[in-house]
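Researcher: Please predict.
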Amino acid sequence: MRKALEHFICVCPALSRIRLIYLGASQFKGLDEVSELDINSLLKFAKSVEKFLVNLHLALQRTCRSMYGVAASQFNLT
């Protein structure tokens, strides 16, 4: 779980622009470095990531409906 969290917060390429905007760098070396950041910046980053993920989810649903005629939730992705 820690490795996934570290990837997500520190180096995930899909979030580099959001990280740069809210946290001041596109990547971080680790969670220790992130822990020194301002809490308000981290909260803004988290809210922006949430919006990104919601929009990604909606885009995937639209794609599944248009390509396959079914909602993404009908796919077993586990």
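Model: The longest helix spans residues 39-68.
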